[in-house]
Amino acid sequence: MNTSNIIVKVSENIKKIVNSGHLFIISAPSGAGKTTLCKIILERFPDLLYSVSFTTRQPRAGEKDGKDYNFITKEEFCRGIKKKMWAEWAEVYGNYYGTSAYFLNNAIAKGKNVLIDIDVQGAATMLRLYPESVTIFIQPPSIDLLKSRLKKRGTDSEETIKKRMAAAEQEIAQQHLYSYTIINDDLAKAAEELTSIVGGIMG
Fold first, then answer.
1. What is the domain class of 21-202 according to CATH?
2. pTM of the predicted model as reported, rounded to 2 decimal places
3. What are the two backbone dihedrals, phi and then psi, of residue 18, each rounded to the nearest 5 degrees?
């Protein structure tokens, strides 16, 4: 047995582990403050990359292509499915959402730390592909407050809000699957908790 070859292989594996970046997965029911918290954490950690999801839905007021989402057609998205471009994808309320496998693999291989916000279903898929991911669930203080936030946001119809509330209850029931849970009853406090988690792992 050539022990020198074994030593080289072990060394290469260690190097890969040391150089690999961290993938932070954040999930939350719609209206729980996930987007706001992600923006805060990205401002506090300029070197943290954000995985911009692809979607076929229409942009909302103030959203920018390439920053909030990459807006593409359903035809383009379906071609991406066939070409296995997505690390995970889902159809939500008639629209498609997906995460670029190329972006994630390229960033992590280069030792970059990446933040991604996806739903619980997407997070489960991501964990199968990236089992070392750091998972964080943002929980609203209560279902009633969550419903109030969605109504005040004014971007969804009453029927859509009902669907989102039903989905929220299912998502909250699965929050135990995450490594960390942050209750967003106070934005400043929640931001500090998230900062502590991300900063502690990134070093």
1. alpha beta
2. 0.80
3. -65, -40
